[in-house]
TrEMBL record:
Pathway where this protein functions: Carbohydrate acid metabolism; D-glucarate degradation; 2,5-dioxopentanoate from D-glucarate: step 1/2
Limits of the Mandelate racemase/muconate lactonizing enzyme C-terminal domain: 150-245
Reaction equations catalysed: D-glucarate = 5-dehydro-4-deoxy-D-glucarate + H2O
Pfam families: MR_MLE_C, MR_MLE_N
InterPro entries for the chain: DgoD-like, Enolase-like_C_sf, Enolase-like_N, Enolase_C-like, Mandelate_racemase_C, Mandelate_racemase_N_dom
Name this polypeptide is given: glucarate dehydratase
EC number(s) stated in the UniProt entry for this protein: 4.2.1.40
Length: 390
């Protein structure tokens, strides 16, 4: 179980149509796929979620060559500074990169031992993992018309129920004027009946706007608001206008306990430093009665890791997010996963239970080479042009 080499490949995963959110609009996702090979010829798969990190992965990988894939704690000491902050190093970036490599270590171990990841994590408590169905205003794609009006978005949601038996819907806010978005939510609620409805503003509102918006949306039985505002203090101030759950991508468990908000953290494996870090963090969330779920936007590699962790850890009860229905390509065999009745089955094969499709990996890498990170097709400021609405 000794590491022979670690290779990283940046890829672009395109959407069938660019979707709009508070940062602008985005036509694809840039990820880094990791292939860790052991001296026995076993290849473990991992993923970095935050763009092209191929060079960083390969530099870090040099430190791990010759190491045992089972010795995760030793690998952390070799790769990630032990302090929370350093003026000489980017601790967060190293933790994210290591998280992708560590995922590959777990996958390689599972493949070597012939066991699925959930087995290595202590067993599973569920066979099906609940996921949300996303909706948003979408610009036209190469072969997709997008959705430009509230009625068109509601028709999309109704179609997802008819075709896929979608159960929980989550939609993007803070992209248009409030009147239009309230119209959208009203139309969606009519289309989905009494199914659970969540709304995600990606921190796009200032506090007064968030209060006005939440009051206006009150009649439509919203179960969760994700990042209606950017910080925890403003989120706690929203308690006076809604009983809905509040969630955030920002990770500060101590502050969440102090303020009583948010109710749940929504993040990925890389932010937590890998599979082991995710297990530890989720257990801490349980201790302080803070919910946890995974967010959307990874390839089939990290998506499989989410499924295994959600299967093995009983506290991950709430539906996690997914954009899988919007993917036009993926790097794994079989292409993008397709939820049915609001769930995906936990993979049963060894390790992550997914395999790279070499042709698909090459195709997605070439797309990255041709387009660059977060390619054209953006509007409203483009990805990274974050603005808050007053």
């Amino acid at each position: 179980m000794i590491i022979r080499s670690i290779k990283a490949t940046p890829v672009n995963i395109p959407f069938v149509a660019p979707y709009r959110f508070s940062y602008g609009a985005i036509a694809s996702l840039t990820k880094t796929v990791i292939e860790l090979e052991t001296e026995d010829g076993v290849v473990g798969l991992g993923e970095c979620a935050d763009g092209d990190r191929a060079a960083d992965v390969e530099v870090m990988g040099v430190r791990l060559v010759g190491r045992d894939i089972r010795l995760v704690t030793e690998a952390v000491r070799l790769c990630v500074p032990s302090m929370a902050y350093s003026p000489w190093d980017n601790v967060l970036a190293k933790r994210r990169v290591f998280g992708g490599i560590e995922m590959a270590m777990w996958d390689a171990r599972g493949k070597t031992e012939g066991l699925p990841l959930w087995h290595l994590l202590g067993g599973k408590v569920r066979d099906e993992i609940a996921l949300t169905e996303y909706f948003a205003f979408r610009d036209p794609g190469p072969a997709h018309p997008g959705e430009a009006t509230p009625v068109e978005i509601a028709k999309f949601c109704a179609e997802m129920i008819d075709k896929h038996d979608a159960q929980i819907f989550e939609g993007k806010l803070a992209t248009f004027d409030l009147t239009t978005e309230v119209d959208m939510v009203r139309e969606v609620r009519a289309a989905i009946g009494d199914r659970e409805l969540r709304l995600d503003a990606n921190g796009g509102w200032v506090l007064p706007t968030a209060k006005r918006a939440i009051k206006a949306l009150g009649p439509y039985d919203v179960a969760w608001y994700e990042e209606p505002v950017e910080n925890y203090e403003e989120m706690a101030a929203l308690r006076s206008v809604t009983e809905a759950g509040l969630s955030s991508h920002r990770i500060d468990l101590r502050r969440a306990v102090e303020l009583g908000a948010p109710d749940a953290i929504v993040t990925n494996i890389n932010e937590l430093g890998g599979m082991s870090g995710a297990v530890d963090f989720i257990r801490s969330c349980v201790r302080f009665d803070i919910g946890f779920r995974f967010h959307s936007g990874e390839t089939g590699v990290a998506s499989a890791a989410y499924l295994h962790l959600s299967a093995a850890l009983e506290p991950v009860r709430e539906a996690s997010q997914t954009l899988l229905r919007w993917y036009a390509d993926d790097v794994i065999e079989g292409g993008p996963m397709q939820p049915r009745s609001g769930t995906l089955p936990v993979p049963t094969g060894p390790g992550l239970g997914v395999a790279i499709d070499p042709k698909a990996l090459a195709r997605c890498h070439q797309r990255y080479c041709d387009e660059g990170a977060f390619p054209a097709g953006q509007t409203g400021g483009g990805y990274g042009g974050h603005f808050r609405k007053s």
